[in-house]
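Good morning,

Both structures are done.
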Amino acid sequence: MRESEQRNKWVVRIFAFLAACALWLYVMNEQNPITERSFIVPLAKTKLADNMVVNNMPETVTVKIKGTRTVVSSAREKDIMAYIDFSNAAKGRHGFDIIAKSTVGDIVEISPKTVFLDLDTIGERTMEVEARIVGIPGSGFTVGKLEIDPLKVTVSGASNRLANAFKVIALVDITGKEKNFEDYANLTPVAIDGSEMYDLNVQPSRVQVKALMLKQLATVELPIKPVMSGILKKNYAISSVKTIPEKVKLTADPAVLAGITEIKTAPILLDNIEDDVEMQMPLNLPDKVLAETHSVLVKIQLEKPR
């Protein structure tokens, strides 16, 4: 009897344990079910040869993990890694499987799973830097001179891309500038079609720029007016007056030129003139004005008494 009772007790205990397990599984499935969650993670490179470079590699991939809701909800991007193994990869276009690992849950999907990438050897070129001015300077100012240091830089990257590099541009911003200035300009390689080639590396990555700012000048062509002084002798009269050239080009600040409509000669004394004459006369030029000539030939013809 005692043996039978003892056996029954064990049977009860086993059924109780199984019931507890079943209850636990039920609760876990109901309260903490298996779920899935997707993460966008950076795509890394491993075991890529030092003299090789990869073109057009995606920056990120989508990785889906599966696990209990408690585990999956606590997962973070840093818990998952995705990479491509480039061991023994050769130059050319190849398909590569993306490998993913996770410290939480199980990985159930990688998207994309495979990518086709172009591998190339790394090349290097020495190229000259060309300044490109951007922005609008202060009113009435312009760039008179630009100095760049250094004038040549080293450009490196995939050999086929490097072959398409046309020039290296230094963007110099002159927005609002009115005084001479020094600054640093970032460098960008560009292709022959003008597209920027950010996948190429430039050393140094920027250059020093020195800019000389000048007051912007204007050029006008104005008539020359001969100025007469004194009195001709009795019964004499001026038949014609002509200057050679008839006009003069002036260069100056636009504000200086704004009020000038003609340029006069120095006074021509008429008192002792009795015949047609030609004389070189200086021009009366305003201050702060550049002129293509400072004197003109004046031809005077007279009407003489009969």
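Second structure follows.
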Amino acid sequence: MDIPVLVVAGFLGAGKTTLLNHLLRTANTRIGVVVNDFGKVNIDALTVAAQVDATVSLGNGCLCCAVDPAELDAMLDRLARPDGPVDVIVVEASGLAEPPALVKLVLASANPMIRYGGLVEVVDAAEFAATRERHPQVERHLRWADLVLLNKADRAGPGVLELVRELAGGTPVVPTEFGRVDPALLFDPVDRPDPVQRQLSFDDLEPRDHSEHLHAGYASVAFGSDEPLHPVRFARFLTELPDGVYRMKGFTRFVGHDEPFLLHTVGRAVRLTPAPDAARRTDLVLIGAELDETGLTERLAATVAREPVDPLDLLSITRFVR
């Protein structure tokens, strides 16, 4: 099984650590956290000393590491092993880091056990105007991201959500409070016979109305077809992905190629893997924010092949095969 590596970025105070705490408390998944910073970073009730190559095992199955960026690939190698302790790795970028630099390190990794899990940019909705003035590069960060979490949305001024969505272009923007987002939006849960043990943090001890729902703000769209897809038309769909789509996963089958593929996309990153044991049909789930279900279904239906194709057309889709 491939281990997704998720990069979480955002300026200081945006809520990255709050998001990580939430994921550690709620995800039924063993999470490895790589902290790309120097200083002390509070993860739940534990303070991780900032020393290169330091690792600490937690009761909830999480592994936290504080590393220099140059050591990131070596750390990924240590965590991403067939018998390794984690199912997903979250890299928390420094508050002043350039997120694409970390993404390039992840994509450049030669470890066959990992795959890119996306770049999530956490934005402080309450301080967005001030952040944008102090750090104008935040506009680039929004466009680079695969998903934007507009945190502290309950304290946002008028028009902030609309402005962030405009600046982010087609990147999906999900409003959140206290970093509460459904972990299933970021990575797939892992079925386990025994529940993952977790530590209580101070946040767990605070009085709170637990009837409130997670501020996920996202939706999913399913598409299936017994007929194979046209490789050129589907490749065009992948490269011209509709606004709001963050992830796509499932199985695809193309005319002229009997063997199905397992498909994973995060933002614009596409990964196809041969899946000879899968059913000879297409079954996809698209996940994102503000999705046009009718429009997505129609566009995918238009990729179904009802005519023969040139064998060379398969090259348009096999270029995504790892």
